[in-house]
């Protein structure tokens, strides 16, 4: 994903002290050290692992993927315990779990009085430029007009703004059908948080910043709200996604569908994409579950930083938007790869 809603709206986004994993410490644990390990549905995790393991590089990963296909779901726990070792990777930052989701908007393939806010494809000159027009210039100028770049039109500019933060979503059509859009590129401008700006202006307190609060303020103050959205010069373009069946989740960073409550976005500097990750999320409604790192996010930086995919629609969005909890994440690595990461004196 290009970013994650909760992470970018919060005032203090946690960032890694190092852009790479070289400064991290790594410890091999036993499966007995994983809180709740035996109670999980390992078969569900194995099914999600199989969705992307064929894309993993390295002969050890390829061999494991081949082995995984021979295991029935009721033997999945044995598969993970036989071929993997839990590795705790730490970079000095506290663990933080947030959530993301796939939004649903009401829209149409044709413009009307109701549906008048366009979801744009990326123009070729924007793709070629390092930095193109700002959000304000794109939406108030003529650069996009009359070029057939509209994928669809929606009825709410605020929801469209949040769709751009999520980077993918679905559009419900008047005939009962739907179309799905995915990230198609950006204009090259840095992201500026409107949540931070509302706090700076004294309109919201830092503890009040949330998607729901921002939506409410923008709708209550339409003129000032429209101007507030221009505070963020970054603009995301989309592409229509047609090869993913409606019953599957949106595409993650591995170009495969992510799975509700089994896929996470993680920092690939510390966690290989496609690797199983044991999640111990504390706080309200604790989670103890084996998930698969199948996505990334521009705000997801650090060895103990993860975004949990909550699914599609408003209910998933509300649950994802409320999540900001501590805990611990432990990556499962192939045995030889795990031990190769340890210091020579181990």
User: Uncertain regions: pLDDT < 50 for 5+ in a row?
Assistant: 1-7, 10-22
First-last Cα distance: 37 Å
Largest sheet, in brief, is: 9 strands, mixed
Mean of residue pLDDT values: 90
Kindly state the percentage of residues in helix. Answer: 25-40%
Question: Short summary of the structure?
Answer:
The protein is an alpha+beta fold and 346 residues long. Helices cover 28% and strands 26% of the residues.
Tags for this entry?
12 helices, 346 residues, 9-stranded mixed β-sheet, alpha+beta, single chain, 15 strands, 6-stranded mixed β-sheet
Can you characterise this structure?
- Helix content is 28%, strand content 26%.
- Strand 11 and strand 12 (287-295) form a beta hairpin.
- The strands form 2 sheets. Strands 1-2-15-11-12-10-13-3-14 form a 9-stranded mixed beta sheet. The chain has a 6-stranded mixed beta sheet with strand order 5-6-4-7-8-9, covered by helices on one side.
- It is built from 12 helices and 15 strands.
- The longest helix is centred in the first third of the chain and has 11 residues, at 42-52.
- The two termini are 37 Å apart.
Please render the helix and strand layout as text.
Elements: H1 5-9, E1 25-28, H2 42-52, H3 59-68, H4 76-83, E2 84-90, E3 96-102, E4 104-108, E5 117-120, H5 124-128, H6 135-140, E6 150-154, H7 157-166, E7 168-172, E8 178-186, H8 194-200, H9 211-220, H10 222-230, E9 236-241, E10 263-266, E11 276-281, E12 287-295, E13 305-312, H11 314-322, E14 324-325, E15 327-334, H12 335-340
Parallel strand pairs: 3-13, 4-7, 10-12
Antiparallel strand pairs: 1-2, 2-15, 3-14, 4-6, 5-6, 7-8, 8-9, 10-13, 11-12, 11-15
């Amino acid at each position: 994903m290009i970013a994650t809603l909760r992470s970018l709206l919060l005032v203090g986004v946690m960032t890694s002290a190092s852009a790479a994993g070289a400064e991290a410490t790594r410890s091999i644990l036993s499966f007995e050290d994983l809180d709740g390990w035996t109670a999980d549905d390992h078969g569900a995790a194995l099914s999600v692992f199989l969705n992307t393991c064929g894309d993993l590089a390295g002969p050890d990963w390829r061999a494991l993927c081949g082995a995984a296909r021979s295991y029935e779901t009721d033997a999945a726990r044995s598969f993970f315990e036989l071929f993997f070792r839990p590795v705790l990777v730490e970079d000095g930052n506290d663990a933080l779990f947030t959530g993301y989701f796939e939004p649903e908007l009401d829209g149409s393939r044709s413009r009307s009085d109701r549906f008048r806010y366009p979801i744009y494809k990326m123009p070729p000159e924007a793709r070629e430029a390092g930095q193109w027009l700002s959000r304000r210039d794109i939406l108030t100028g003529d650069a996009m007009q009359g070029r057939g770049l509209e994928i669809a039109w929606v009825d709410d500019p605020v929801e469209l703004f949040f769709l751009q933060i999520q980077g993918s979503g679905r559009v419900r059509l008047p005939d009962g059908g739907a179309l799905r859009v995915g990230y198609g590129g950006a204009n090259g401008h840095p992201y500026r948080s409107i949540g931070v700006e509302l706090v700076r202006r004294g309109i919201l307190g830092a503890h009040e910043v949330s998607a729901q609060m921002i939506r409410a303020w923008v709708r209550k103050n339409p003129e000032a709200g429209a101007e507030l959205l221009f505070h963020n010069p970054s603009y995301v373009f989309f592409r229509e996604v047609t090869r993913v069946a409606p019953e599957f989740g949106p595409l993650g960073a591995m170009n495969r569908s992510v799975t509700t409550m089994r896929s996470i976005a993680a920092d690939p500097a510390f966690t290989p994409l496609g690797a199983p990750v044991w999640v111990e999320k504390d706080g309200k409604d604790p989670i103890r579950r084996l998930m698969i790192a199948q996505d990334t996010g521009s705000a997801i930086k650090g060895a103990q930083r993860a975004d949990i995919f909550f699914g599609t629609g408003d209910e998933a969005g509300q649950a994802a938007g409320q999540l900001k909890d501590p805990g611990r994440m432990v990556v499962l690595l192939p045995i030889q790869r795990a031990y190769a990461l340890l210091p020579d004196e181990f």
